[in-house]
Amino acid sequence: MKRYKQIYILAAFLGLGFMMNTTFAQDAAKNNQVTESKIRNIDGVAAVVNTGFVTRKEIDDRIAALKKQGAKLPEDGSARKTILERLILEKIQIQNAEQEGVGISNKELDKYIGEIAEKNKLTLVELKARVVASGTSFERYRQMLRDDISMTRYREREVEAKIKISDAEIDNFIMERTRAMTAGSSSSSASVGKGGPEEIDVAQIFIPVDAGAGAGAQADAKKKADALLRDARGDVDFMQLGAMAAKDNPKIKFQDLGYRTPDKLPQLFYEAIRNTGGGQVANAVVKSPAGYHVLKVLDRRAVMENAPVQQAISADAVSSTPKNIPITQTLPRHILLRSRPSLSDQDAERRLQGFRDQIRAKTADFAELAKKYSEDGSAANGGALGWMSPGDLVPEFEQAMNRLQIGEVSNPVKSEFGWHLIQVMERREGQLTVEKQRQFARAAIRERKFDQAYQDWMRELRDNATVKILNVEDAASSTPR
């Protein structure tokens, strides 16, 4: 369910045209040209999609929602056509999901709505009141949720079936990661002659944001990208950092682009990493029309005529046999105050700051405070969480923990679970097992392939559907053409 966290509260009405559909269906058997003329006069219909409709009212509502979010839409009218295409694709997905029995039961839907209310610190009654206040009925809100979940499940099922990951791909991914970790700066500097042709292995963490998104959304994405760039400069594995960010926000993507010559890299990327050495991150976040990119140069190497042979030798030199990778494990403990309507963020932060001051003044013991006040299962153990490896904890917690020295206590840290006060008790060197490496490699390759598979699938859906555009330019309140 990770891919449908965002819920849109929209109103969609089919208008008089839906009630008149039967009459025109009968006319169609007599004269298709007359039918088309009559359909064009149905008030509110912007497009016919297979056996359904997209209305001009739906376009109006989607535009109103975007403007409410602060989005700046083009004034040349192209926004209506873009939004219509999105609505058409959504309609096709809903229709196909219904035909194939992909959906959500009433019991599941009720549970999901309950989770939405809880996450927003609302009772069910308060959530219903907010929905009605937004201008739509709660029944319509339920239907929009049902459609959104059905689309997501159908999308995941269909796209996942198109993604194939072989054992050889996983082996190559692990080998490349191992080479990047073990090669070090010496191989990078030695492999590229000054001014000679080269290949650059670049990885990225991508924070997407629509070009038409408002200033607030743009600023939030930039802030997240800047934070990831700061973290990437530390002693962390870049791809694991990307995996943690994607775990927190599934829209964030991370990928290793592999070795490419400069002309095969996006120009924006190459300009950003032109003078960046192997193992280093770019000096600044890169802004593209699609969003923000955090870049790291994993390696640079010379391009030689016998490159395939050299690559094979290099691979053998690293090792063709999978090995465990050394990692740093941390033993933390924490005091957790869970998010709830009766406890504001300010109150939680103030309480934890008070605990921190007591611990630093040695007037209270961390473990005793955790036993008394922490609101999770670790309380009985004085807040101890056990040995943690990279990626085991939510990003906010792990990033704050990694910045602490042994014995140091953090400032209050907020995560999806609530507010934490963290102390690092000990660190040790451990190993990332081969099995864990393969799990990570499979997830990373899947993320890399998912976007392309998704775009291909969407084009296929659109090409196979019967769509007739009627009137998209006019708003629902205007006279149809």
Topology:
Blueprint: H1 16-19, H2 21-28, H3 32-40, E1 45-49, E2 52-55, H4 56-68, H5 78-99, H6 106-119, H7 124-133, H8 138-162, H9 167-191, E3 198-208, H10 215-232, H11 238-248, E4 253-260, H12 267-273, E5 280-281, E6 286-288, E7 291-302, H13 307-318, E8 325-338, H14 345-360, H15 366-373, H16 395-402, E9 413-415, E10 418-432, H17 434-464, E11 467-469
Antiparallel strand pairs: 1-2, 1-11, 3-4, 3-7, 5-7, 6-7, 8-10, 9-10
Give a nutshell description of this structure.
The chain is an alpha+beta fold. It is built from 17 helices and 11 strands.
Q: Which series of helices and strands comes N to C?
A: HHHEEHHHHHHEHHEHEEEHEHHHEEHE
The CATH superfamily of the largest domain turns out to be Porin chaperone SurA, peptide-binding domain
Overall pLDDT confidence: 77
Count the DSSP helices. 17
Structural class: alpha+beta
Radius of gyration: 27 Å
Helix content: 40-55%
Low-confidence stretches are: 1-41, 183-195, 305-318
CATH class of the largest domain: Mainly Alpha
**What is the correct CATH architecture of the largest domain?**
Orthogonal Bundle
Predict the CATH topology of the largest domain. Answer: Triger factor/SurA peptide-binding fold
Main sheet record: 5 strands, antiparallel
- Strand percentage, roughly? 15-25%
How many angstroms separate the termini?
Answer: 42 Å
Question: Using DSSP, what is the number of strands?
Answer: 11
